[in-house]
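Hi C.,

You asked whether I'd gotten around to modeling the 408-residue construct. I have! Everything is below, sequence then structure, no commentary in between.
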Amino acid sequence: MQHRHLVSSLLLLSLTSLATACLDSDDKGTEDDPFGDLDVAKDDSFQQPTHHGELAYGVPATSALARTARFHAWEFDVLLPGQTPVALALAPAVASGPTVDTVLYLYKQQPSGRWGSYIARNDDANGSLWSYLSRSLDAGRYRIIVKGYTERTYGKFGVKLSCDRYACSQPVATCAFGDTFAGIDRQRFAFGTDERLTSAAGLDATTRAQIVRAMNASSHTDVTTAEQAFARADGGEIRRLELRDWFAVRVYLAYEYGAGDNSYGAIFDERDLEPAAEIHDGDIAACTVPPATCIFGGHDDLAAQPDLAVLRETTFDPGTDTTAMIRSQILAAAQLHVPELTTMTAVFERVTDHEVRRVDVVHTPTRREFNVYTFILGDHRYGAAFWKDTTTFAVEIHDSVHERCDAF
């Protein structure tokens, strides 16, 4: 899609609540004006950048600023309504690679299909020449453009999109489940309960819905009930296999069945109704899950994660004066484990020693911040981590073990 930029009404936005330290622009001279040449037919311009297609979340993309390729563009979708935390980080293309003085622009596509003026821009962030943006974005189509600070800024770079699981562009470039259902990586996934289901009797609503959706992955697109699904499956049998992703700290359920002696089905996050991938004649298809590693690791030990740094620690008790956001986060974390706790008073009465601990951490490579709340129930630690100053879960904490990670 051709890009026409409106020169007027350009606004430099403050992009993040993180304490980013920008370098003094006087030390670098003046940035070359990317909008000075409005010849939209000219190759390699801000209006006609090198377009690299989709930017899949969690999968770094690389390119290089060169004399004939000074502008680079990628696009991605935010799929969920509301405010989705999104981070875009520029970094060396390879470990220990040279620093490149990049500038990053972010656009949102308008209803007309045009991009209009950029909605965010960043030059230097976090004390380096690399660019970084952190924003909460509504559903829509977005584009980034990467350029050098001057026309003579050359070099390789990497760009990574980090956002809430399933919130950004899909399908992904590489699937965590691999290419075939039979070939799922046993080093990444632990195989749990493996059972053969032969009837819909006694199944809960989520399982029934997942079975119907899995049956729709084959030619049986007219199936609307779990009873119909069992009637259509070869031999009246559907296999359900639990898959635990040790790296991403998530649990999936695979439903596989025979359809004309061929293997079909779908793989779901354990609580979701839309599949993370489908099984077509034994092959993995329509995958939305890239290989990813949870930044919190598998257990509630923040000190064991080299990329996490503790910013501050706080302990709350019934007499602590808190903000509305803190109260909302505490209630959300408590209700994960004890749903009937609907007031702060009830929470503090229930937790051991009437205390809730908060630890604020930063993921140092991307400068994303999180609020981690934990408390003791009986003799075990529970809680949750949230994206900073939101009630969006980054990871759940169950008996000191992390589950359902959404931060990679």
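If it helps when you're writing up: The chain has four helices and 21 strands.

Thanks,
B.
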